[in-house]
Design goal:
By secondary structure, the protein is mainly α. The chain has a domain of 123 residues. It contains eight helices and two strands; from the N terminus they run E-E-H-H-H-H-H-H-H-H. Strand 1 and strand 2 form a beta hairpin. Helix 3 crosses helix 4. The radius of gyration is 16 Å and the shape is globular.
């Protein structure tokens, strides 16, 4: 993980472990993240928007990688299911932004007994900070793809299998680009 040195006035993100200088940003209660890590996620979104022609196809993947890496212990159970669903659909099924968002809508309207998914103690080594500071757009793109895969593969097999099964049971096959 490429984070600034652990110096006084720094924070350690409980979700990804990034050590970042204190920024005074407000809390980010939706995620298990420091305000500083949430700020990095916002900066990464800004970079994506500035480079939308190249990075736009990774928009939902970025959201889901961050969400799967920053699961709030007492947060709604639907959050990690959706994050892992997006990672699964992109990485294993070749589905894009619209397919994943449509799947989320279908799932939200068809199911409500979400399993409680328990993340591992460490959800990958790469972080949003690593993606943001990777270099030019080519490096950001490749690092974001590596980050997403690393986050997906860090989750226990049983949790990933549960998400695969739930997705296949609820989401119509037409939203999977690789049948």
């Amino acid at each position: 993980m490429n984070s600034p040195d652990d110096t006084p006035g720094s924070t350690v993100c409980p979700g990804c472990g990034s050590v970042l200088p204190s920024s005074g940003w407000p809390e980010a209660p939706k995620y298990n993240a420091t305000p500083e890590c949430a700020e990095v996620a916002g900066e990464l979104l800004g970079y994506e928007v500035q480079n939308a022609a190249r990075l736009g196809y990774l928009h939902q993947l970025r959201i889901d990688a961050y969400g799967a890496q920053h699961v709030a212990p007492d947060g709604p159970r639907i959050g990690p299911v959706f994050a892992l669903n997006g990672l699964y659909m992109f990485l294993e099924r070749g589905s894009g932004n619209l397919d994943v968002r449509t799947a989320h809508g279908i799932m939200a309207n068809s199911f409500d007994d979400w399993p409680r998914l328990v993340p591992p103690a460490r959800v990958g080594e790469l972080t949003a900070y690593d993606v943001l500071t990777a270099g030019g757009v080519d490096e950001v793109e490749s690092t974001l793809l590596r980050w997403a895969r690393e986050v997906w593969e860090a989750w226990p097999d049983a949790e990933r299998a549960a998400v695969r099964k739930l997705t296949v049971e609820i989401v119509p096959e037409r939203y999977f680009r690789h049948q």
